[in-house]
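Attaching the record inline, Q. Sequence:
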Amino acid sequence: MPTPDPTGAPRRTAYLPPRAAKARKLILRSQLGRGWIVASALFGVVILAAGGLYLARAGRPGPPWVRVAALETLPAGAVTEVPGASRSARQALAGQVVVVDRRGDELRAFLAAPGPCKVVAAGAGFARPCSGQRWDAGGVPAAGEATPALRRRPAAFARGDLYVLPGN
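Structure, as predicted:
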């Protein structure tokens, strides 16, 4: 709405001069006010806060991924069993153990029921020596055994920690 001139004639706050018509440039004749400055500063702060949160979390997968262990506790070239503690952040792993296989070129993680002793490497597969349980390299029980299979789960390293996607 045009604002009146002191003489009483309506005054334009913006206009489109003929030369600027092609470029669609609008020329403002008055200041936008404090509201525009405050709004732009507020948006700047929101963008900086979102960027800071993103960088603080950088690379760590969020839920439903679960942090299992630090990299230094999982020796390269070995099979390590890590308990799936029942702390609130690890509820998805409660009552299970994570068997981490770092032999070869790829990292593999399996979920298993806890047993009387730890799962260890046995050739290319796995074994729980104290109970005589054996699995092949894919986690399938050895022929003739009534042992539950090791369930392979997606796993990833992020910022020095191992994360596992629990699933069903």
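Residues 3-57 form one domain. The chain has a mean pLDDT of 80.

More tomorrow.
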